Structures are given as C-alpha cells and as structure tokens.
Amino acid sequence: MMIDLRSDTVTRPSEGMRRAMSMAEVGDDVWGDDPTVLRLQAVVAERAGKEAALFFPSGTQANLAAIMAHCGRGDEVIVGQNAHTYKFEGGGAAVLGSVQPQPIDNAEDGTLPLVKIAAAIKPRDEHFARTRLLALENTIGGKVLPAAYVEEATAYGRSRGLANHLDGARVCNAAVASGRPLAALCAPFDSVSICFSKGLGAPIGSVLVGSRAYLAEAHRWRKVLGGGMRQSGLLAAACLYALEHNYARLAQDHDHAERLARGLAEVAGVELLSQDTNMVFARFAASVCPAVEAWLKERGILAQILPRTRFVTHLDVGSDDIARVIEALKAYPGRAATEHDGG
Ligand SMILES: *Cc1c(COP(=O)(O)O)cnc(C)c1O
Hints:
Layout: E1 3-4, H1 15-22, H2 35-48, E2 52-56, H3 59-70, E3 75-80, H4 84-87, H5 92-95, E4 100-104, H6 114-120, E5 130-137, H7 147-159, E6 163-168, H8 171-178, H9 182-186, E7 191-195, E8 206-210, H10 212-224, H11 233-245, H12 250-264, E9 271-276, E10 279-283, H13 289-298, E11 301-302, E12 308-312, H14 319-330
Helix pairs in contact: 1-11, 2-11, 3-10, 12-14
Pyridoxal-5'-phosphate binds next to helix 3.
C-alpha cells in the first residue's frame, strides 16, 4: 500500500464500511423511498441542527445546487478567490446557474474581510447583478474559520439581505479541531454542504443541509443537474458508517499532520509554511520538485511536490507512515533539497 498524502479524497472504504454497504436496505431515491438515504438525511440534518438534508453524489454538485437554490439568473454570489466553489468547480455557478460570482481576496486566515464584502454588495439598480448570497468555506486550506468571524460575517450578510452558504466540505474537521458540535458551526448559515468522501472516508457523497423549504428548491436543481440517484442507499450506508466510525477519529489526522509538520521543520531545505487540521503546507525549491516527488514515489509515498506543497493526512495514513515520510525526506540525497530558490 502506498502512503498517499495527495488528498483526503483517496481513502478507500474499509471492510466494515463495505459490509455496511452490502447490507444496506435500498429503494428508489428518485421516488423518495430509499430508506437508507432517508435515514442518512435525517441523521445529518439532526447532527447539523437543521430541518432537512439532501444527499448528493459530489460536493461540487451540492454547492452548485445550493447556489442555484439561493440565486436566480442574474443574481450574484460573493465568494473568496480561493474558494473551492469559485476556483475549483469549473465555474459551474456561472456556466450552469447563470449566477455571477463576485470573488474577493481571502485574508491569510481564509476569511473574507467585512469591508471587502460591504464594498462588493451592489446597489439595487438595473446596472448591477443582484447580490443575493455570501458563500464561505470552513475549513479553508485546512484552516478553521474563527467562530466570532463567522458570526459577524453572516450577521452582516443577513443585515444586507443576503443568504449565507457554507462550503463545509471539511466542516467536520473544523468541528473536531475546535471541539464544538457540528450544529454550532452550521448554525450561522442557511445552507451547508458537507463532504463524506474526504476525511470521513466514504467513497462518494455529500449532504446539503438547510430548511425544508430551501431543500425543496435544491432538490429540484439536483434533479436538473442529473443528481437524482436510484438505489443510492448503498452509498448512504457508507456515509452513515463514516459518521459513526470516522468522525471523532479526525482528531488523529490532525495529530498526524502536526507530527508531519514538526518533522518537516527538521528537513534541510524544506520550509514549513503552515499546519492546520489535516493539512500541511511546505515550500520546496522549484528545481528539486520533480526529483523529490520521484524519490518519494520510489519509497512508496505519493505526494504532489510543488514549490507550495500540500500534504493531507487521512484515515489511511498511520503514525508509522508519518515517520516513514519524514525519514524518506531526510534521506533525500545530496544538497538538492537545500538549494533553496525561495520565492
Ligand atoms: C472536495 C471539496 C468540494 C467538493 O468536491 P467533490 O470532489 O465534488 O466532492 C467542495 N469544496 C471543498 C472545499 C472541497 O475540498
């Protein structure tokens, strides 16, 4: 087995999860009668402190349907330049939703400064798109958004007539890292999308939570986007299993990331940039990136080595693996790793 630090999406379903999937009671969810999907939605809604939940095949689709349920044609969403929904989802809100994104620069801690949000909200005038939605992300680059900031930003959005959406792909990491209940992190938002295919370790699946009326609208868009699934209880069973078995253990991933960061700090030529929750960022000299990546691969370690490298820990990475990664980097021969070309 390779040690795969490229992302927490690479986790494979465990034996227990596969068993839960194989035994799942199923129905046709487009008809609304897959009992396992209904159970997942009820459980997640409850855990997130919302009225209702809806199961999606991917986080991308959950975010898109979420935006489309908040915004109509010619409406606008305020979103971070680095936000997944803006940067890494193919421009879906604009392409498929006729929704104009208004990106603003994220601060170093991942927040969107209130003054910038305020300046980006358009006057109600036919010249402008109608600003309808503020979308935040938690965690972002592994960073947990400060709770006080989230309160303030969402309250401000509301005061300006905006709805609030959270891309909570890794909101479970944020909850575990901050020792707060999931519901507390979701409370300030009208809608939250939560990934089960990341650190929670399910093969597929995201859940969008919100009010019943809001999710009725999102349900319609899910169908339009091709996200109506049939015997999806097989997948929902994996998500239920993940919630039960893999939620609290996210703390281990955070510990492993911390250990990896400590180790990286001791590797000559590697500059540790940050570590938050299950992500570690480090700088490598551009000239050595391909060679270091190959060196690691030969030693059973998969990582995308870039000048700004992201290592992600997850449930298929154990404590011994962390030690092996640090060892392999320390053993990188010659002075190549110390030829730091900065930048
Ligand atoms: C992974 C991720 C998503 C959704 O990605 P999918 O691969 O479509 O499930 C959305 N937002 C963030 C922050 C993510 O990390």
